[in-house]
């Protein structure tokens, strides 16, 4: 069974994600307030780990690129679990295997890569040498339902936080894999069109509705430090006409 997935994000009042573009916090607020409030709220959600996209994870790791052969699908592709112990997980959705970790952890969390089965044997060996666990999301790495089932069944994850960026959030939204939204609204504005936002599904046409069949039900609203507002919604499913 897949875990409960909570999309936990912080954005400006216009839903933008690049915090260096937001108008300043109220006078007297600490510079590190945003990260502190975000992390404290995340802890209260009782997740056993978090999921991000490839670009977001790339900013958190510092491994160096290594040479690999061409893609090879001749070998069996099965889940590999490294020396995780009791650690929470830091999951990267990286279908083509582009990330180089150089370690098995980010902070206190154990690294897990979600891959497509087309990645090379050499890349999988690199992950094992680094101690990184991995699982597969179908041939091309796009089967998020399968990946989440593996995360639940083989890693024992019951609740996980989806933490962006907007593209991976949009993919989970389209796949109907988000059970709750935990949104921290920063009291500031970006204002420019085209800046990354909380959900960015890149559909085949402008007529697609990636959130079709769902409604949001308010769970709670809470004002935190520096006038940041924490809003939680349950994502309810309904029949689509």
UniProtKB/TrEMBL annotation:
Metabolic or biological pathway: Cofactor biosynthesis; riboflavin biosynthesis
Tree of life domain: Bacteria
Keyword field contains RNA-binding: no
Keywords, ordered alphabetically: NADP, Oxidoreductase
GO biological process terms on file: riboflavin biosynthetic process
Keyword Oxidoreductase: yes
Any one GO MF annotation of this record: 5-amino-6-(5-phosphoribosylamino)uracil reductase activity
Bacterial bifunctional deaminase-reductase C-terminal domain location: 3-229
Short name of any one Pfam family annotated for the protein: RibD_C
Protein name, entry field: Bacterial bifunctional deaminase-reductase C-terminal domain-containing protein
């Amino acid at each position: 069974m897949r875990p409960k997935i909570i999309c936990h994000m912080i954005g400006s009042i216009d839903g933008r994600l690049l915090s260096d573009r937001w108008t300043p916090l109220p006078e007297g607020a600490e510079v590190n307030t945003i990260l502190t409030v975000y992390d404290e709220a995340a802890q209260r959600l009782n997740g056993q780990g978090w999921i991000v996209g490839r670009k977001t994870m790339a900013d958190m790791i510092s491994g160096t690129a290594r040479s690999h052969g061409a893609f090879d699908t001749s070998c069996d592709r099965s889940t590999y679990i490294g020396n995780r112990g009791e650690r929470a997980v830091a999951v990267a959705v990286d279908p083509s295997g582009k990330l180089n970790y150089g370690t098995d952890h980010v902070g206190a969390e154990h690294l897990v890569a979600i891959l497509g089965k087309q990645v090379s044997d050499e890349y999988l060996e690199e992950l094992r040498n680094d101690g990184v666990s991995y699982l597969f999301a179908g041939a091309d790495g796009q089967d998020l339902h399968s990946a989440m089932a593996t995360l639940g069944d083989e890693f024992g994850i019951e609740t996980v936080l989806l933490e962006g960026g907007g593209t991976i959030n949009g993919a989970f939204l389209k796949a109907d894999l988000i059970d709750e939204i935990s949104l921290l609204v920063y009291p500031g504005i970006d204002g420019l069109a085209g800046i990354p936002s909380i959900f960015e599904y890149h559909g085949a046409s402008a007529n697609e509705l990636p959130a079709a069949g769902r409604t949001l039900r308010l769970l709670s609203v809470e004002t935190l430090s520096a006038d940041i507002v924490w809003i939680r919604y349950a994502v309810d499913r309904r029949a689509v006409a």
